[in-house]
């Protein structure tokens, strides 16, 4: 019986200790988490709806205006190939990979394919689309840089 | 284009309605009193059940929006209404809230902490409502899949089956939930969709409070919920639109519901556990790991038909997704669980074990989780000292199997170990840490209850002339 009393007393003491740890943990982090959330609100509330929509690309230093140009030339369900001139990139992947990953998200509901032969539309960054070896219609160039769009000729 | 917040909120009200209806239909509430006392489970139950359904419907190209949610709410609502009319008006076997408390001070502290957690979540919703998609995987994987489901009404055009859109092994609950949100808002809105994540946080807090308060002193329940919600990593990772914190919330609620079933020796919460763990398996591939880590020891300890049925229900919830991945040959490029059963494969990669263990261990103890791990360990010690063997055994088995499972994933992965630890370890441990912290009040509460019972029994025995 004494053993049972000891174990229940020790259990109760440990339960109280758990309560103290829980309270201390919550109260320790509450101000910092609150401040971080306040900071997030003040950092982003001034952005326009358009700036918020572009932020995934802007934050990665990608030329979102060029992707807006691409998007204006694509229709729902279009299959497009995105060719990007190779180059370094700050986010840990090369520029071509970063551009393709952003395109998969930003250019929906058009669908990216992995070869120009499979594409309805060819989009390129820094590359002449006629160099890709597929028959193309008229090539359009974006005024803000070396970004090109051409529909595949079937 | 911006979406309508009102539309998103309406969709979430419908999740609540569906959840309220499911409480009697799934026999989680067997009396009217139990229905009233378990209303806190309703929102997360409705969200998880509807999310699982919409993820499965997405595989067949059936989109779910406000109209479909209204129809679903009406269907389950009418069925529930008919059942509720037949429910007994007598109190159920749910424990009285007041019976667990140690006095008014506990209630004041507990309610204050719980309200503080809710206020923090409201603050999060306010911040999330203007926060764009920022984190790479948040938009490149999760929001991309959600947007594709919204644009195409389901899996289509090879977006979910062809490699440019990898990783393809992630199941679709979170993207399907967000796609339903976009349809309800009337537009794809990568900013407002974060409000859905904050609402998920509310559902977790309300659900955990309800599960704990039937058994645990208010102070323990409230303080633990505040500790989880306020921990630096919880809301930061939730804001990133990654699936790891939603997964952790579902796993934690499922594991606590299983633990409650062990303590109560009652199957009432098992359907809730099945829905939570089933939804977890549809949230991330690791969801299956955490669910199996809970269900295997649960079935072995409970040894009941109901426990087996719970495990079967979880498998059935996952089944459509597994069929889809099998039909389309979708494989995880980073690891295959079959390699975990291959001794020579494991031996060839044995040099990964030490860095994997150290990396995962380091993340479990990361300051981002505040003192959630010490909380879980102290509560576990309390349960051991009070000889709550079944509960302590279940909690230890789940935590150890989960930790071992995480370690195994990093061991068998083909990605260089330092890279995969850097990219994924900090968030893969979220389910383990939050799940353990959610179990902590139950462990400590049982130790406390045990000591209170011992104190009460002793004078009675003494007055009866029994041996002390």
Give an account of the 3D structure.
- The complex is a heterodimer of chains A (154) and B (468).
- The mean pLDDT of chain A is 91.
- Chain A has 2 domains: 1-46; 61-152.
- Chain A has helices at 2-44, 49-58, 64-72, 95-106, and strands at residues 79-84, 111-112, 121-125, 136-141, 147-152.
- In chain A, 48% of the residues lie in helices and 16% in strands.
- Chain A has 4 helices and 5 strands; from the N terminus they run αααβαββββ.
- Chain A is elongated, with a radius of gyration of 27 Å.
- Chain B has one domain.
- Chain B is 72% helix and 0% strand.
- Chain B has helices at residues 5-25, 32-37, 42-59, 66-86, 104-128, 136-152, 173-185, 193-213, 218-230, 232-239, 244-264, 270-281, 286-302, 305-327, 343-348, 353-364, 372-385, 389-412, 417-428, 430-463.
- The radius of gyration of chain B is 22 Å and the shape is globular.
- The model of chain B is unreliable at 460-468 (pLDDT under 50).
- Chains A and B meet through α1, α2, α4 and β2 of A and α5, α6, α9, α10 and α17 of B.
